[in-house]
Amino acid sequence: MRRRLLVLVASTVSLALVAFLVPLALLARELAADRATADALVRAQSLVPVVSVAGTEALQLAVEQADGEDRPPLTVYLPGGAVLGAPASPSDAVRLAFTGRSLTAQAAGGREIVVAVEGRPGGTAVVRTFVSQAELTRGVGRAWLILGLLGLGLLIISLVVADRLARSLIRPIAGLAGLSHRLAAGDLTARASPEGPPEIRDVTSALNNLAERIRVLLAQEREAVADLSHQLRTPLTVLRVEVDGLPASEQSARVGTAVEGVERMVTKVIEEARRSRQEATGECDAAEVVAERLDHWSMLARDQGRAVERDLASAPLRVGLAQETLVTCVDALLENVFAHTPEGTALAVHLSGRPEGGAVLQVTDRGPGFTHHDPSERGVSGGSSTGLGLDIVRRAARRAGGSLTLGSAPGGGARVTVELGPPPRWPGISDDRGARPAATLTRRQR
Fold first, then answer.
1. Rounded to whole angstroms, how far apart are CA atoms 186 and 278?
2. If you placed Cys at 94, which of 86, 90, 181, 423 could pair as Cys (CB 3.0 to 4.6 Å)?
3. Residue pLDDT, tens place only, 27-58
4. Could you report the per-residue pLDDT of 237-273, keeping only the tens digit for each?
């Protein structure tokens, strides 16, 4: 927009300057030529009284006195054919002047001025002077230079003023664009300072009010989800008591496992609802978090006879997620393996960096893999869980500018790949415009 405004002002001012300066330059040239012509005519007419009454010798002396080194030459043609002053062949204008007409005519290299003088014995005499092109254009170059510098100065001043005006318009607009991007990235605390023209200030105030309204509504929604989740604990507790009172059997064990899964997911829902957006969009060292969570789950893996293969990058890998959020994601991925694969099933965790920054986390197991369910569908599960674990991971990855991909491992089993972007350019901001998960192999919803 700034460039377009400058181009518009430059073109408009240039057209105005051309329309003003070109006629003025032509006028300056005409004035210079008229001035030189008028001066030469005055000198020629000054000899008219002398030519009409003086003798040849006196006239010759007068012509020599009128001539000068820096003046146009004077020539006097007498009726008898004698020529006094600067030698010059009679031209058509001179011959026409012998008929009694005074005139100014264009000649090669300048202008020719002839004055007819009546009253001399023997007929009409003619006084001729010649003004060269250099005399006609004397001072025109300097005038044109002044006009050009004046036009250039006016153009520069107009561009400077237009640039400052464009800056005053673009700065608040850029602030509005930055505010919209930050709101889209999830930073509901972002606000813009009202500045610029009244219309832009009104838009800024409206956008700030909208952001505040969104923040309030989202907080109310999270509180409602948290309250609902807490209310679910009472029937879950009753259900747990009832399950514990059932006789020991395979069916009661399955029901107990299902109740435990629901309790875990309710706890996660409460934690997710209570977690503030500032915590969810921070940054942390992915290598440190993944290593710590692997150590935590390794004890359960040993109890279940699971082989755990780890391949973690040694260098710090900064990602655009808060430590608490990344811990929740890693726990969800590992718990997914423990909950949906038989005991003794091996798993592998691979963590590496991305060339553009961030990290790639890959969890692979040797279990049965995914079912036909769409893994991107929230709340769908092929097992006894609520189907929210992978959705939480997917949304966290998108907040960090990455994605979640589900597929099959080369040797069979499931593979979950989570890409996490680097920390955002401003604190608490992440790009939520990531693509949807590109999973296609879905034999079992985790």
1. 9
2. 90
3. 999 999 999 999 989 888 888 888 888 788 88
4. 777 777 777 788 888 788 888 777 777 777 766 666 6
Q: One-letter amino acid identity for 294? A: L
Compute, in degrees rounded to 10, the torsion defined by CA atoms 369, 373, 377, 381.
Answer: -70
User: What is the Cα–Cα distance from 179 to 188, expressed in whole angstroms?
Assistant: 9
Tokens representing 100 are 């009694």
pTM: 0.47
- Please list the residue range(s) of the chain that carry CATH number 3.30.565.10: 278-446
Residues 171, 159: Cα–Cα separation, whole Å:
18
**Range(s) of the chain covered by CATH 1.10.287.130:** 186-274
What is the CATH code for 2-140? 3.30.450
Write down the mean pLDDT value for the chain.
81
Q: Tokens for 61, please give them.
A: 């002396």
Within the chain, which residue ranges are assigned CATH 3.30.450? 2-140
CA distance 82 to 100: 18
CATH 2.130.10.10 for domain 278-446: no
pLDDT tens digits, one per residue of 89-131? 888 998 898 888 899 998 888 999 999 998 787 788 899 999 9
Does domain 186-274 correspond to CATH entry 1.10.287.130? Answer: yes
